[in-house]
């Protein structure tokens, strides 16, 4: 397996010096992460197809691009990959062709032949797709032997339109899967948040998919404002700084849910993933140092599952973390690089949701506010 890393800014290509000697004609898979402004300014797919003529090309819009240990804004980061003994197959579905995201997720996985399929890397529209339903649909179709990771496309801090492309110009509503076949590819995964919980644990007593109305029989928004105190005056912008820890029925470890919007008239909060009735929730707040430590933890978790040094690590972190860390955002990427001993190429993006199992051998989950890492190495 070989990997080469590139960035494209101000109309200029730059290849990272740590890239392996990979011929661009030989690249079989290109993962490209670009800001919406870059996608609107340049004919990105045409540029990539000319440069990597034989590759499957996947493009995702972002809320920030990761180019090794740099975090770019309004740029483009891509990794080109070649494999010695692994077959790569891509599939896509469009949300408009299905009545809901669950059906789209099911259809995406069913498009793959299951024999010798070991991993599916998913890049989904982040505006029109319900990530929780997408994951439920995929999990209903995959076996436990097939690892599913990935993320939801971003649109900076605008939350307007996200774009995903497969061997064509990016568009809204597309969900792309990259299937890896064979037993030579080692894929590790890790996902951690680093947020602090505070306040009492409460039960969700009224919700509708990703809209929360009541906790412990009380108005959810009023409880949320009470816990935020003075910070409540900064809503809805402050909502990204105070997500919820959610314990889903049947799952012991909590997952993090980002608040996308609030409705003062209805007293409700809309999240970036479902919050079912019966779930237990606690409020959370940011801790700068713990966010960085969690990024290290995710890298350690993904590295431990593989016996050899990863050639490439895909980093998908959340827009909420970037908004909190601000000028310190690169610290979490540098922390990951430290765990990998500065010998693994890093690329990825800031997203509207991360896809990964919580633990090895479990089903995929939608996460918010995490650093989620997928590592790749091909054994001989």
From TrEMBL:
Annotated protein name in UniProt: FIST-like protein
Domain FIST C-domain: 220-358
Source organism (scientific name): Chitinophaga polysaccharea
Record-linked InterPro entries: FIST_C, FIST_domain_N
PANTHER family, per the entry: BLR0328 PROTEIN
FIST domain boundaries: 26-219
Residue runs in coiled coils: none
């Amino acid at each position: 397996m070989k990997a080469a890393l590139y960035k494209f800014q101000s109309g200029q290509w730059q290849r990272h010096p740590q890239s392996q000697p990979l011929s661009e004609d030989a690249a079989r898979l290109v993962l490209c992460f670009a800001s919406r402004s870059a996608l609107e300014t340049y004919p990105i797919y045409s540029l990539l197809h000319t440069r990597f003529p034989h590759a499957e090309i996947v493009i995702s819009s972002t809320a920030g691009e990761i180019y090794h240990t740099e975090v770019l804004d309004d740029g483009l980061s891509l990794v080109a990959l070649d494999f010695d003994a692994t077959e790569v197959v891509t599939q896509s579905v469009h949300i408009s062709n299905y009545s809901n995201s669950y059906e789209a997720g099911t259809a995406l996985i069913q498009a793959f032949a299951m024999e010798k399929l070991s991993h599916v890397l998913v890049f989904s529209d982040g505006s029109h797709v319900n990530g929780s339903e997408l994951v439920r649909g995929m999990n209903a179709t995959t076996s436990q032997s097939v690892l599913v990771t990935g993320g939801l496309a971003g649109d900076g801090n605008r939350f307007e339109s996200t774009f995903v492309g497969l061997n064509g110009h990016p568009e809204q509503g597309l969900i792309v899967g990259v299937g890896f076949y064979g037993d030579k590819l080692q894929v590790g995964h890790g996902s951690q948040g680093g947020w602090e919980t505070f306040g009492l644990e409460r039960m969700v007593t009224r919700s509708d998919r990703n809209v929360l109305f009541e906790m412990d029989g009380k108005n959810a928004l009023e409880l949320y404002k009470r816990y935020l105190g003075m910070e409540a005056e900064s809503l809805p912008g402050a909502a990204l700084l105070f997500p919820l820890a959610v314990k889903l029925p049947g799952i012991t470890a909590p997952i993090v849910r980002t608040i996308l919007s609030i409705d003062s008239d209805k007293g409700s909060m809309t999240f970036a993933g479902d919050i079912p009735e019966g779930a237990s929730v606690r409020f959370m707040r940011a801790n700068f140092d713990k966010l960085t430590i969690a990024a290290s933890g995710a890298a350690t978790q993904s590295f431990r599952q593989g016996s050899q040094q990863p050639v490439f690590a895909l980093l998908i972190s959340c827009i909420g973390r970037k908004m909190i860390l601000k000028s310190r955002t690169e610290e979490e990427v540098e922390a990951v690089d430290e765990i990998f001993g500065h010998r693994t190429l890093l690329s990825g993006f800031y997203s509207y949701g991360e896809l990964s199992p919580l633990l090895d051998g479990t089903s995929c989950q939608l996460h918010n506010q995490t650093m989620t890492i997928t590592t790749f190495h091909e054994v001989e």
